[in-house]
Amino acid sequence: MTECLQWARYHWQRLMGGRNRDEDERSYSYSSLLVCGGKSSQTPKLAGKHRVVVPHLWPFKDEYEKYSGTYVNNRIRTTKYTLLNFVPRNLFEQFHRAANLYFLFLAVLNWVPLVEAFQKEITMLPLVVVLTIIAIKDGLEDYRKYKIDKQINNLVTKVYSRKEKRYVDQCWKDVAVGDFIRLSCNEVIPADMVLLFSTDPDGICHIETSGLDGESNLKQRQVVRGYAEQDSEVDPEKFSSKIECESPNNDLNRFRGYLEHPNKEHVGLSKENLLLRGCTIRNTEAVVGIVVYAGHETKAMLNNSGPRYKRSKLERRANTDVLWCVLLLVVMCLTGALGHGIWLSRYENIMFFNIPEPDGHVISPVLAGFYMFWTMIILLQVLIPISLYVSIEIVKLGQIYFIQSDVDFYNEKMDSTVQCRALNITEDLGQIQYLFSDKTGTLTENKMVFRRCSVAGFDYCHEENAKRLESYQEAVSEDEDSTDTPSDSFSNMAKPRAPSCRTVHNGPLGSKSSNHLAGNCLALGSGEGASEVPHSRQAAFSSPIETDVVPDTRLLDKFSQITPQLFTALDETTRDPPLETLYIIDFFIALAICNTVVVSAPNQPRQKIGLSSLSGMPIKSLEEIKNLFQRWSVRRSSSPSLASGKEPSPGVTNAFVSRLSLFSRMKLASPVEEEASHTSESPQGSSNSSCPTETEQQNRDPGLPEGEVAPSPGQPSASTLCYEAESPDEAALVYAARAYQCTLRSRTPEQVVVDFGALGPLTFQLLHILPFDSVRKRMSVVVRHPLSNQVVVYTKGADSAIMELLSVASLDGASLEKQQMIIREKTQKHLDDYARRGLRTLCIAKKVMSDTEYAEWLRNHFLAETSIDHREELLLESAMRLENKLTLLGATGIEDRLQEGVPESIEALQKAGIKIWMLTGDKQETAINVAYACKLLEPGDKLFILNTQSKDACETLMSTILKELQEKNPASPERASLREGLQHTQDCGLRAGLVITGKALQCALQEGLQRQFLELTACCQAVVCCRATPLQKSEVVKLVRSHLRVMTLAIGDGANDVSMIQVADIGIGISGQEGMQAVMASDFAIAQFRHLGRLLLVHGHWCYTRLSNMILYFFYKNVAYVNLLFWYQFFCGFSGTSMTDYWVLILFNLLFTSAPPVIYGVLEKDVSAETLMQLPELYKGGQKSEAYLPLTFWITLLDAFYQSLVCFFVPYYTYQGSDIDIFAFGNPLNTAALFIIILHLVIESKSLTWIHMLVIAGSILSYFFFALVFGAMCVTCNPPSNPYWIMQEHILDPVFYLVCVLTTCVALLPRFTYRALQGSLFPSPVRRAQHLDRLTAEERMDALKKWRGAGTAGRAPWKYAEHPAAKSERRGPSGPPTALTVASAPTRAVEQGSSSVRETALDSDFSETKASGRARPSEG
Question: Are 937 and 1026 contacting, i.e. CB atoms less than 8 angstroms apart?
Answer without folding.
Answer: no
